[in-house]
Design brief:
This protein is of the alpha+beta class. Helices cover 24% and strands 33% of the residues.
Length: 168
């Protein structure tokens, strides 16, 4: 009986390790091979007493104010175009596949008050708030042939699209 339990625990640990490794490799592939696009930011206060320094990323979702997007599902695909490396939102839809030639997709979900893409805060070392005070863009990497809308926040950028922060 003890050997069965040991075998079951070992199999579960191997499965857990396999899932975690797969998730890390997937994000690493997006980080190294993904297409970089810049999302314009609206200013927020970069401070948290409990968690250290961080910046809540406040994106401009004014395109959502039309009637068609108001009826979109709570979860789905945020369709966007890229114009001069800038993220230009187009529409919300439930399907991740019905895209036109120059359109791409990120996963989204709607909270009670806002649209979320899973990259709403950026943490940085305590005392580095001044380095990020000039942030005008969030850098998001995504795979162009992505069927599930995965993305990765890779940094904050200034008005000239230069990466902010320490370079060590």
């Amino acid at each position: 009986m003890k050997e069965k339990i040991t075998l079951i625990l070992l199999v579960n640990l191997l499965l857990l390790f396999g899932f975690l490794t797969q998730a890390v490799l997937k994000k690493e592939k997006i980080r190294t091979e993904g297409h970089l696009v810049f999302l314009p930011l609206l200013p927020k206060d970069p401070r948290s007493l409990m968690q250290g320094d961080y910046m809540i990323l406040n994106y401009d979702w004014t395109f959502l104010e039309n009637e068609e997007n108001a009826k979109a599902p709570r979860r789905g695909c945020l369709v966007f175009r890229i114009e001069e490396e800038l993220f230009v939102p187009v529409r919300l839809q439930s399907s991740f596949t019905d895209l036109k030639v120059s359109e791409f997709c990120l996963q989204y979900y709607r909270s009670e008050y806002d649209l979320k893409i899973g990259a709403e805060s950026y943490f940085f070392q305590e005392g580095d708030a001044d380095l990020y005070a000039e942030a005008k863009f969030a850098g998001i990497r995504f795979m162009e042939k992505n069927q599930n809308g995965d993305k990765l926040l890779v940094g904050l950028y200034d008005k000239n699209k230069h990466l902010l922060g320490r370079t060590n």
